[in-house]
Amino acid sequence: MLLADLTWPDLDPAVAYTLLVPVGSTEQHGPHLPLGTDTAVASAVAAALHDADPALVLAPALPYGAAGEHEGFPGTVSIGEDALRTVLVEYGRSACRWASRLVLLNGHGGNVAALRSAVTLLRHEGRDAGWLSCVADVPGVPLDAHAGRYETSLLAHLHPGLVRTDRAEAGDTRPLREVIGELRAGGIAAVSPNGVLGDPAGASAGEGARLLAAITATASAAVTAWDPDPGTGRLRPPPA
């Protein structure tokens, strides 16, 4: 069920609904990917979960997040960690008046601290909330940090017309752990002038389809298991 298309009588108070909410960001993704990349990925994963189980209620995406590290590039709009946390807490408090469970599907790494804090509070208040990130390990595909092959493949599959392949170029390819200090001090622009952390070379729509399937399978297993980490509220997948 698509929340935005329903009327209030369509929701039966006797039914235990699970509400899926994609949480994204509006931020630079190098010269070749759209600003809405993270929102698009989170929305696609949520839509795939909904397609597999139409009893789930799919909410419109939240397209803004904590993306201050990208503000050195035009187009980025960040609401910051504190504001995002407040939005998520109030969203959860309101939605859980009728939804039995709340699943926040995150597409942007910078949102994690706010998600942890917000969901931990919601759970402390007695609301059955959980969150998970839209990532998965796929053999042969490097999990680079930002706008590299991983995200470029996903967007080539999801929205090929929005990928400017003629502009695709490598950025800083060092592991994130080696640049995190510089990144925190000066943002992405201080590390990578083109905004890319990784290399989009080798990306393909076929690879993106494999990635989306893996991410969706991981997310589906975690939602089905419903085992939120007691310290963070992150939904944990079942043991392998």
TrEMBL record:
**Could you confirm whether the keyword Metal-binding appears in this record?**
yes
The cofactor(s) it depends on are:
Zn(2+)
Keywords associated with the record: Hydrolase, Metal-binding, Zinc
Record-annotated membrane-spanning stretches: none
Can you tell me which family this protein belongs to? Answer: Belongs to the creatininase superfamily.
Quote the protein name from its UniProt record.
Mycofactocin biosynthesis peptidyl-dipeptidase MftE
Species, as recorded: Pseudonocardia tropica
Give the gene symbol.
mftE
